[in-house]
Amino acid sequence: MKSTRYTLFAAAIAGLLMLQGCGGSKRERKEEAGASDPKVEKAPSLKEINFFLETSASMGGYLKGGTEFKDIVSEVVTKANQIKPVTVWTIAGKPEAYSGDVNTFVTSLATTPLATGRSSELHNIVKQAGDKAKGNAISVLVSDCILSFPDADIKKNPEINRNDASSVLKNAIYDEFASLNKQGIGVTVYAYRSGFNGTYYTYQNQKQTLGGESRPFYVWVIGKQNLLADFNAQLQDLLSTKPAQRLDFGAGGGLKKYDLLFSVNKKGDWRAERGNVTEIKAGKKTDPAEFAIAVNLGGLPAYAQAESYLKQNLNIKADNANLKLVSVKRRENLGATQRISDREMQLLNANTHVLTFKIESQFAEEASVNVKLPVRFDTWYTDWSTMDDRSADGRRNKTFAFEHLMAGVREAYQSSGNDFINLTFKLEKD
What is the phi/psi pair of residue 409, to 5°? Predict the structure, then answer.
């Protein structure tokens, strides 16, 4: 009997030791579970990319001779195809599926006259591309983005483009993008320049032959906001030729995913649990609690990723607490990380920035925190716009009525609830 009791006791002890060895301490398990916020739903994965090349006659000059346009477009479509297989379309009026694969399309940019279609109103082209960006799809549209009325209207009134671009054409653009915004579809604009060899059509539809004059063109990336940021980040990592300018018009409430770190920049006594800072010890003999969260801002424009910009523009609100932003660091500027766990290193490597906060005081057992980065639209596009493109000096490196085009897009997305970042978490006392 005594032998039996001893055997059972020894087995129980062995079982406990095995559980401790496999699962770690209660505190370790809790902090591991607290590294990510489970309240954030997993974003749907990208299923398809539709690539549209505008092929109206006004695009022909980009495709003649050795131009930056051909190099950049070839790289964009090839690198996008590495992210997810691309379906290529040409578009002037209605989109037409390209018969070959991406490699054949890249070859045809150099060998085949593609830009032979009749001119089409830009808002109609946007609508066609936007229709293919619903669900879990991304549309990429390449265009010179010249706002214009149909040829018949210009023949009747040669000044109609200049007189009515700011009203009729801008509002047609606004209407298309407002519709996309309501569906949670955002847009990013990449701006490039290229030599142009061929026929240029002025705002009065007069032909001028250009030989290598520098002309802008634009790559528009359109898609659901939760797909757009990730796609932009992946594409920018792959591209060797970065855009001269970029502008993001985001739909929805901004980035909501973050990882609460459980040792990096930690001060005081607290625990990480389900994305919240919990069991915070407070008192005269206790150091103020400091904690850090990691976020992936790779999908934001470059200016919004700058440490100084984030430190100046992050908006932090905490009910029942005084919370101070201590520092903003890019992951590579964080300093020594040799002593952190493999799990925490994985979290760091999945993000681009670390935000560190200090709890200066807390007035209740629980406090809710909201961290926002409001969208600030850059206005570089005004320098890329002209309202008289009849001379080289008037149009070089500029797009007719581009300012009005971008104003229409901006108005469609401008709202008080438009944020790059919108994070929420809780602070809970012990």
Answer: -65, -45
Per-residue pLDDT tens over the stretch 357-382: 999 999 999 999 999 998 888 899 99
Between CA 256 and CA 261, with CA 257 as vertex, the angle to 5 degrees is 130
For the beta carbon of residue 244, count every other beta carbon within 10 angstroms: 13
Tally the C-alpha atoms within 13 A of residue 354's C-alpha that lie toward its C-beta.
Answer: 25
Q: Which two tokens stand for residue 239?
A: 């591209």
Give 6-41 pLDDT, tens digit per residue.
444 444 444 444 434 444 444 444 454 444 444 444
pLDDT in tens, 241-282: 999 999 988 755 678 899 999 899 999 999 999 999 999 998
Q: Are 411 and 418 in contact (CB under 8 A)?
A: no
Q: What CA–CA distance (Å, rounded) separates 430 from 427? A: 10
Please give the DSSP secondary-structure letter assigned to residue 267: B
Q: What is the DSSP letter of 60?
A: G
Sequence-distant (6+) residues with CB within 8 A of 115 are 54, 55, 56, 57, 58, 59, 60, 62, 63
- pTM of the complete model: 0.73
The beta strands (E) that lie in 281-339 are given as 290-295, 315-318, 321-330
- Quickly count: other Cβ atoms within 10 Å of residue 343's Cβ: 12
Angle subtended at Cα 267 by Cα 262 and Cα 271, rounded to the nearest 5 degrees:
40
